[in-house]
Design brief:
Blueprint lengths: L13 H25 L4 H5 L2 H11 L14 E4 L5 H11 L4 H7 L28 H16 L5 E6 L6 H12 L5 E7 L2 E2 L2 E2 L6 H10 L3 E6 L3 H12 L6 E6 L22 H10 L38 E3 H11 L6 E5 L3 H4 L3 H5 L4 E3 L4 H13 L3 E7 H6 L2 H9 L4 E6 L17 H6 L4 E4 L4 H12 L4 E5 L4 E3 L14 E3 L7 E5 L2 H15 L4 E5 L2 E3 L3 H11 L2 E5 L8 H9 L8 E5 L10 H7 L4 H12 L2
Parallel strand pairs: 1-2, 2-3, 3-7, 6-7, 9-10, 9-11, 11-12, 12-14, 13-14, 17-18, 17-20, 20-21
Antiparallel strand pairs: 4-5, 8-15, 13-19, 16-18
Helix pairs in contact: 1-3, 1-4, 1-5, 1-10, 3-9, 6-7, 6-14, 11-18, 14-16, 19-23
Length: 630
Amino acid sequence: MTEHQGLAPAPMTAAQAGVIGSLAAQLRVDSIRCSTQAGSGHPTSSLSAADLMAVLLERHLRYDWDQPSLPANDHLIFSKGHASPLLYSMYRAVGVVDEDELINTYRQFGSRLQGHPTPVLPWVDVATGSLGQGLPAAVGVALAGRYLDRLRYQTWVLCGDSELAEGSMWEALDKAAYYKLGNLTAVVDVNRLGQDGPTELQWDMDRYARRVEAFGADALVIDGHDLAAIDDALTRARSNPDQPTVILAKTIKGKGVPEIEDQNGWHGKALPKDMAERAVAALGGPGSLRITTALPEPGTPAITANPLASVRLPRWEVGDEVATRAAFGAAVSALAARPETVVLDGEVGNSTHAGEFEDAARERYFEMFIAEQQLIASAVGLSVRGYVAFAASFAAFLISRPFDFIRMAGVSQASIRLVGTHAGVEIGQDGPSQMALEDIAAMRAVHTSTVLYPADAPSTAQLVETMADTAGISYLRATRGAYPVIYGPDEKFPLGGCKVHRAGPNDAVALIGAGVTLHECLMAAGQLAEAGIKARVIDLYSIKPIDAETLRRTCLETGGRIVVAEDHYPEGGIGSAVLEALAGTDTPELHTVLLAVRSLPTSGKPQELLDAAGISARHITAAARSLVGA
């Protein structure tokens, strides 16, 4: 007997099959009613999967609806989030959403029953609706169950056949197989029709199965409207402890409404009122069936979070030359003292220094290889289970390729920590394909984001520790090269703060930098001092939130003369953040020069590239002199 076979339900009786059939009809009716009342939604995508979810809800899902945070609960994620009418109808069937809320508030302003599910509902783990994301996030949830919580909960994911065109789905299956996630089951609603015609493979179930098996998962092909076949497949899935299962269910889009069954052109369209009335009547009318799902087996996670655990951050001496990426690796390894800390790598841990965490806590280090979408999704899934997840890779790939996953993490109001190294022209000879020059702009635009760019090792270490306790999506930009330590070990770096250097009562200009350009600004200030020009320097290590008050005061005290230097394209970067912070304030007329990377860089030595981009000390000096008329 395998580990999970004890959880298998007894064979389905005829009476149970009758209840499930009635439940499926009710789910279809409610999906039609709420979407027709709203005048929008995806009823046909809900109708095709109603039998699948009826069997799951009645026979296999183990969940305490009164305690959605119970650690041993199963997880149910709708990767095809547009089938929200079905999900919300399930919530009505178990009694956590009443009929009035379902029928009269779905998709309405202020309702928690939004067009696509979000965690404003306590039974929703992650926001979905951008296809190809629910299954990847579920991998993170399942990783936590198998390797960290060591609990026997199952992670069930309802997927659509259209989203199997997304590469992220196959990244997810690949990593699920690699990590032997038998606690993950994907149920694919193969209803043949997408938004604008047939899907790529339509009902070629053999080709679907071969693809699934090629990625290391167990493929079960079934008739998605045969209740006994569905029940058997779900039982088998839960009885497979070391291999993820993909149930490929052949279904009919619009099932239960003969007028539109398997008919193109109905995706994302509510049934007109007259058609809805006929369909509801044919399905037996509105129902009031209430389902009591099985409760999970008692259990507590193997890891207990301890955010108050003593953390000894590394220390450096002023003048030491340290790359901030190395400081990140040392700091996050120190955070291993907190048992909830987890690190994910994108096969560059030896360069980002994230790999040092593996030596500190091997069981909490997960390698996602060169699969950046899955890297972010796994972090989100781990956060669902309460883990403090850091994901690190080269900034150019961490931010760009999986940006939609980061954006959706913001919609989920998830808390994840991202560290992008090797940013800007400062990386040198690797050339422009490796240079993140858009990352600050991208991350500033994400809901709930925090954007940090420390200039030395102590500030990096402090900010890494702060990220662990910061809600939302935090991003730290780290340099490749080693730079002098300029702060003592006891210096503090609060979010929304900055550091002011060389300030005096008669400063003629302010130089603002962060990361690598902070060092260039300090050199420029020294050059200006030799010419008798007093310049203060601001280390804008916290770009979002930003210290608007210090910036405003600086403008007042320097006559509005500001030079901003950044190793980033000018659009949306540090300069934009500064100007946005000053907009609408009672500052004098601004006299601003923004030095940024304005042309496509090439390979070269870091200092050559900084100079060629016009963001080195000599360019900062020249810009300041132009502002003061010297």
